């Protein structure tokens, strides 16, 4: 058994942290206040080859390992969680299905520019009536000659309206239930594809969650991803990986809160001494640090299993469940320790608390993670 | 064109503390970094490579863990890396260091040698100039801008209140300052390539063919007898009491000190 990172992974952490602290963190507050999509961050990440870390160089990636990618999401999220989810959704949800199920032509046309960071990707499964019940897809795709015609809408789509390439799920055969769902690669300029409502969110405000509308959207037949009817499987396997990414995002947020607290309790004086001297707060900090460490081990473990081609569905669900709940435990505690200051925008902990909440919801709510864990365990 | 870049791995001085008893640096647990000025030197070499075409060869002398600094340099875009590491190199002063590095430099057909102005741990700014002397080539220190015209460099050398423009023929040694450029981040792809596709070659005293008496502590004319932290001579004085008393005391003290 070996818990140490490889030299490569240590270097990735060092460099991404340096990058995140100098280039990303200083703008996090501004991005949160304005809700402006951080294109500048995306461009800088692309320049540093961060938009396709775990994909082979021949497909435009950095040729790295999965743990290095997860470390990058953690470190970017520690600086700015909105930027972290842009990276995670792009890499785990848009690039991955093309890498896994795409034809050679699809990989050349779509994966290469995505993994190079020349284009941005998104993943569209959720619908107004198909959230946790993802199988209840109402978007339809009908084959007509050499193209499919899509109709329907998707909501809460991360990078929606900003991405160039979308992985979109639609029913090709309603009679077959989940086996009737198919996946498509859709370009932003395809006729009949529109961006609808853009959500005003509580946290990760710089990231985009938008509605996608398909009105007789014309999709070339060769943009079917995988086979007809494979869509649900593609979505579920893709989300397994995505959850490790969101686990890493939650971990980065939680670590940021812990870092802020560790600094603050040494500086803030009450009753004539730094508040870190009080045992009551020391216990809080010890508990926070223990949870963050446990979350990190679960997240890295799931990533390690994926890297080593071991099953990781349950481990990814556990990592995401625990890391997101840790973020939601640690960030309000950070606000509490900061007291009145913590409730203001003068310090970043209130932002961390708002950013943390979504990690318990998207890419499968905590309740869904428990369903996944239990069904893997009980096999009933 | 071949460019040699000499770098040093140093403790991140933002994190360094001095042991109050032994008066030496506490290096344990302190992250090591590429010396900042050396990073500017490396960046400029890579920039020249991109603009004019060149091979960038990065060299350091240090303990085995200095390999990390070389890997980072490779990840930034250097082509080859050499680590001069040997027990007999240990304890070298700037003279012995420059002498050892010069032996290494002579193995290459170089056009430009880049060093950082000075290292943040020793702060001597001597190794670059001494290396140029050992090699008997011209040197320009405090370089803030470099242009190439054929076999000539046009270099801006920073002065306290301006700069001088120097034309110099290659081969030449330049020492870089932070005004020269902004070092790039190593790309993530570069990191994987640095570990998987590039090599850090180890060079020992025997490989260099140097006499062990001429390098390391034995080859160093400088002897460090002791290092001390200066004691605080004057402590601030704090006046307490009401404002009127404080002001009176303050004025009185200032008069005593002949300040007013």
UniProtKB/TrEMBL annotation, chain B:
It holds the Pfam family ETF. It comes from the Bacteria. CDD domains: ETF_beta. SUPFAM superfamilies: Adenine nucleotide alpha hydrolases-like. Residues 22-212 form the Electron transfer flavoprotein alpha/beta-subunit N-terminal domain. InterPro entries: ET-Flavoprotein_bsu_CS, ETF_a/b_N, ETF_b, ETF_beta_N, Rossmann-like_a/b/a_fold. GO terms for molecular function: electron transfer activity. This is Electron transfer flavoprotein small subunit. The lineage of its organism: Bacteria, Bacillati, Bacillota, Clostridia, Thermoanaerobacterales.
